[in-house]
Amino acid sequence: MAAFEEFGVLPEIAKAVEEMEWMLPTDVQSEAIPLILGGGDVLMAAETGSGKTGAFCLPILQIVWETIKDLEQAKGEKGGTAPTKTSATWELSTSDRTPALAVSADGLVCQAREFKEWHGCRATKGVFNSGKYYYEAKITDEGLCRVGWSTIQASLDLGTDKFGFGFGGTGKKSNNKQFDNYGESFGKNDVIGCKLDLDSGKISFSKNGVDLGLAFTISQQVQRSPLFPSVCLKNAEITFNFGTKPFKYKPDGFKALTEADKSCIKNNDPVKAPLKKLNNAPQALVIEPSRELAEQTLQQIKKFQKYLEKPAVKELLIIGGVNVKEQMATIESGVDIIVGTPGRLEDLIGGGYISLAQCRFFVLDEADGLLKQGYKNFINNIHAQIPKFTPDGKRMQMIVCSATLHDFEVKNMAERLMHFPTWVDLKGEDAVPETVHHVVVKVDPQLDTSWHSMKQHIQTDGVHRQDNIGPGKKSAEALSEAVKVLKAEYALKAIKKHNIDRAIIFCRTKLDCDNLERYFKIIGRGAGRDNPFTCVCLHGDRKPAERKSNYDAFKQGQVRFLICTDVAARGIDIGSLPFVMNLTLPDEKSNYVHRIGRVGRADRMGLAISFVSTVPEKVWFHGEWCASRGRNCYNTELTDRGGCCVWYNEPRYLADIEDHLNITIEQVSPDLEIPKNEFDGKVTYGARRVAKGSDYKDHVSQMAPAVSELSKLESKAQLTYLKRHFLKSAA
Ligand SMILES: Nc1ncnc2c1ncn2[C@@H]1O[C@H](COP(=O)(O)OP(=O)(O)OP(=O)(O)O)[C@@H](O)[C@H]1O
């Protein structure tokens, strides 16, 4: 049996996974896959590159496929209706309830342990037409509760619309949000009798056998619909008796619900309408912060389903820059899993082209990134539109991946939107994967004066265009300009020295990316046929089609360098990428881990080099106050004076990162000689790391003696049991 099958993955999917050379699930996969397959909400964080995408794509694909298969079978057997499960007995419905309300196995006890919200439930059967019916509800634990009757249209928060009639522990009756004094308060151990007289259209209650008088007269409109026993609770527990046991206080003239005539009973069927697959209603919606990440996730889903035969799972990428009419046509022709970015998704969902009515999985990948990009309201809106139960009674599952779960925004969102999520936090605080060797090279324009006499250099961002910065000048502005020039030279030097033929290079701004790309092209042209500096750019100002072709060109090895900003490169996964360079450190410390995590993925070794200025650099910072957001803006005043520049303090950012990671990052001299250490000489960057004692493969052989000992013990225990058992029977 393939390793993935042991985690409940279908053999067909496990086979595809094995072909991708995934022999064992990663830690986050071993934890998250069974949880998702088991129906839970999962909030996961693990080191960058540790296989989070597979951890959610695998189980989602499996469940979506199984659901489509069930539907197709049901179609064949029953002419289009999904199997309906109806209950033979009077009990609380496990389908017609809010998510946090637990119902006991016999369906007679319900409990909600949430303090903040009401959770409710209806019974599996209701009554209509005529007759006088009675049931009892005993309060078995302190807390707030309301019991009574409601029609199927009523909210499960009993008494908050015209279809629900409740009596609450505080001594109030409620219908249509009107809470009026009624009877008296009740609490633990009290038995509330709920009486429904369909002949005269009246509802009344009793407490411990004492009648509390008429509570409601039911309108004719409501009387036409069956009424079901209903309850809602806030951190409380109630036990019901619909008539299977003798009542404690049975009133005269009323029947137990269990004695209702068949002709007056209506089943509370969770599948109210035949489940028909709507073409434009996906079962899973995966939201990614960037188009590249969305494409990557979609590709994984495609690979996983290689051996899944009929029915086919239809997945679709919804990103901007792609012909929207084509996307709409594909949606109309049927879609099961949508992977997309917020902008285009918002248009298509808002315009009614995508229906969320049958969505069963709501996934936020890189949720911290999505929230930082300002998509909180978008996420809330989508969540509000997805029904919390699908038409076939399955609970909506929400899965959130984040670089860290220790982020206030992420925690807050999880608390608001997720349903008792299981935290798979394999990371705790940010940490650098063991497979990443990362070093810092200080760029000091006072020590390295090569910029005084350069014939050719990078065109910088132009911040110092108006400043007096010629060679030999020692002003802060001159040194700042010098650093910008030197950093590009250091990057070239690193490439030559370490024969770097494949790397992602991070720049701080889109303009910095453009300038570096242009410089590499100029230098490369002079370098002849085997241009060692071929490169492309990936950032938000490039048109989507160009971004795609640039990304593909780099992925396929047609160019050596991908020059990009943080946002564009978040989460991108390029197999066996050996090198990353940071031309400038990010000011957001967690982005450092993200950036360097582009190497060292899937157990391959990688080297990340960061060039860190020893002096402050004056750089562009165009905020909301900048009308053009940087385009043709030359306001070099500092931001605190209404301008668009700041002094970037890299030594401080380096200290922040070190502090955050609780490490000192190894420093390398400007000659870029990487010192001998545990990485050097033993690894080839981009190749699989050499297995050490703690690695998976050796792990098996290390565990072997203990496992064999355990198996011997087990067989001994079983033999002892059998001997005793048979000896006893023989005696
Ligand atoms: N079980 C596995 N065995 C071998 N390789 C794997 C396994 N799971 C994932 N991978 C590979 O590891 C790489 C990283 O996976 P993935 O992109 O899912 O990581 P991630 O945790 O989402 O990273 P990030 O936080 O950077 O987005 C991919 O190339 C993927 O194909």
UniProtKB/TrEMBL annotation:
GO molecular function: ATP binding; exonuclease activity; RNA binding; RNA helicase activity
Matches recorded under Pfam families: DEAD, Helicase_C, SPRY
Substrates-to-products reaction catalysed: ATP + H2O = ADP + phosphate + H(+)
Helicase C-terminal domain sequence ranges: 478-676
SUPFAM superfamilies in UniProt: Concanavalin A-like lectins/glucanases (SSF49899), P-loop containing nucleoside triphosphate hydrolases (SSF52540)
InterPro entries: B30.2/SPRY, B30.2/SPRY_sf, ConA-like_dom_sf, DEAD/DEAH_box_helicase_dom, Helicase_ATP-bd, Helicase_C-like, P-loop_NTPase, RNA_helicase_DEAD_Q_motif
Family membership noted in the UniProt record: Belongs to the DEAD box helicase family. DDX1 subfamily.
Domain note: The helicase domain is involved in the stimulation of RELA transcriptional activity.
UniProt name for this protein: ATP-dependent RNA helicase
